Amino acid sequence: MSGHSKWANIKHKKEAEDKKRGTVFSGLSKQIMASIREGGGSDPEMNPKLRAVIKKAREANMPRDNIDRAIKSFEKKAFQAEELLLEGYAEGGVGVIIETLTDSRNRTLSELKFIFKTCGGGLAESGAVLFQFERLRKLLIEGLTEEEALDFLDYGVVDLKAIDKKKKKFEFWVEPGKATKILIKLKKNPKLKVLVDELVFRAKDTLGDYKDPAFSRVRELLEELSSHEDVVSVYCNLKNKE
Q1: Does domain 82-242 have CATH number 3.30.70.20?
Q2: Three-class SS string for 23-89?
Q3: Helix, strand, or coil here: 128?
């Protein structure tokens, strides 16, 4: 029986890992399509947003075929898709923002309402949650010294965080309209690399730690939302939500 239990546990663990990997790849595919839509084209050389997402996908070991499929899928149908921004509350009053790309508004709304209902939350009216967040450009830059990173504070940077000082990685949160100045300055220094460049919603204040056991139902909700085929990104006002 112990042997049976051992292999059953291994099988269960593998299935869980495969599901998690599939969810990650699905989310990256949506990000690829969204970056093409926002950045204006499917050529990575001409679209820095797409280039950054493809790099992120490769680092996650996403197969090249999956990346190409996501690009081709967008070229075939995603220009007819609709961007839908939804707001809701999870258990405990945790605010949630969901970015979707859908070809059927009613279907997406219905399915996401069901997910909220089964996980102890609900969708909210437009504006009910959004005021708790700010729209910012997130940049992850490699190759900066701390002194060089601080020099960017005069370029519309609202927050700065050292991610890895040894590897000289710094995370910048920038007002969307001012990020171009930073990117222009970066291009003048070939030793610097932009690892991430994306528009995100960041909570102005947080209600607690995402990893706290008390928020297990919230994590369940966010995982279910993230795995939905129409969802591009999910944000909440808990800290340490990667």
Answers
A1: no
A2: HHHHHHHHHHHHHHHHHCCCCCCCCHHHHHHHHHHHHCCCCHHHHHHHHHHHHHHHHHCEEEEEEEE
A3: coil
Give, to the nearest 10 degrees, the angle between helix 216-226 and helix 105-118. Answer: 160
Spatial separation of the C-alpha atoms in residues 1 and 137, rounded to whole Å = 54
Q: How far apart are the first and last CA of the chain?
A: 39
Give pLDDT tens digits for 76-119: 655 567 889 999 999 999 999 999 888 789 999 999 999 999 99
Q: Which residues pair with 23 in a beta bridge?
A: none
Domains 2-78 and 82-242 share a fold: no
CATH superfamily of this structure's domain 2-78: Integrase, N-terminal zinc-binding domain (1.10.10.200)
Q: What is the CA radius of gyration of the chain?
A: 19
- Do 35 and 64 meet the contact criterion of CB atoms below 8 Å apart? no
Host H or E run for residue 164: strand 157-164
CA distance 9 to 13: 6
Instruction: For residues 135 and 143, give the distance between their C-alpha atoms in angstroms, rounded to a whole number.
Output: 26
Model confidence, pTM:
0.73
